């Protein structure tokens, strides 16, 4: 699956192909796999519509945030987004504006 089948707001590299990652919740052990994105194996959003996580400007983020609230890797996801300065989309249950605010409060 590539981002190209989604509308332009969804980055091509948003997600590693779930087929490559294996079954959600069952992490494949790959020797030497220490990628920053290993947590995405357990990401709930990999099983849903990615466009909910990259809404059009002014679009609702409610559905995405509801999914994030039940996600086991919410902390890892948010840390990744903050560390990599992700500008778009919902990560770890927070919008871009909410992540900016969190960063300001932390500094
Ligand atoms: S916290 Fe939300 S955006 Fe992050 S991996 Fe989980 S479902 Fe996806």
From TrEMBL:
Binding-site residues, [4Fe-4S] cluster: 45, 68, 71, 77
The 4Fe-4S Wbl-type domain, residue ranges: 44-101
Note describing how the cofactor binds: Binds 1 [4Fe-4S] cluster per subunit. Following nitrosylation of the [4Fe-4S] cluster binds 1 [4Fe-8(NO)] cluster per subunit.
UniProt entry keywords in alphabetical sequence: 4Fe-4S, Cytoplasm, Disulfide bond, DNA-binding, Iron, Iron-sulfur, Metal-binding, Transcription, Transcription regulation
Pfam families given in the database record: Whib (PF02467)
InterPro entries on file: 4FE4S_WBL (IPR034768), Whib (IPR003482)
Presence of keyword Zinc: no
Necessary cofactors: [4Fe-4S] cluster
Keyword set includes Iron: yes
Main location: cytoplasm
PTM: Upon Fe-S cluster removal intramolecular disulfide bonds are formed.
Location in the cell: Cytoplasm
Similarity field: Belongs to the WhiB family.
Function: Acts as a transcriptional regulator. Probably redox-responsive. The apo- but not holo-form probably binds DNA.
Protein name: Transcriptional regulator WhiB
């Amino acid at each position: 699956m590539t981002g190209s089948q989604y509308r332009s707001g969804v980055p091509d590299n948003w997600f590693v192909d779930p087929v490559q990652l294996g079954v959600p919740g069952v992490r494949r052990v790959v020797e030497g796999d220490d990628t920053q994105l290993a947590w995405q194996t357990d990401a709930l959003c990999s099983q849903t519509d990615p466009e909910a996580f990259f809404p059009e400007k002014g679009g609702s983020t409610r559905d995405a945030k509801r999914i994030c609230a039940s996600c086991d890797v919410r902390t890892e996801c948010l840390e990744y987004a903050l560390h990599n300065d992700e500008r778009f989309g919902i990560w770890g249950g927070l919008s871009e504006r909410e992540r900016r605010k969190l960063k300001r409060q932390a500094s």
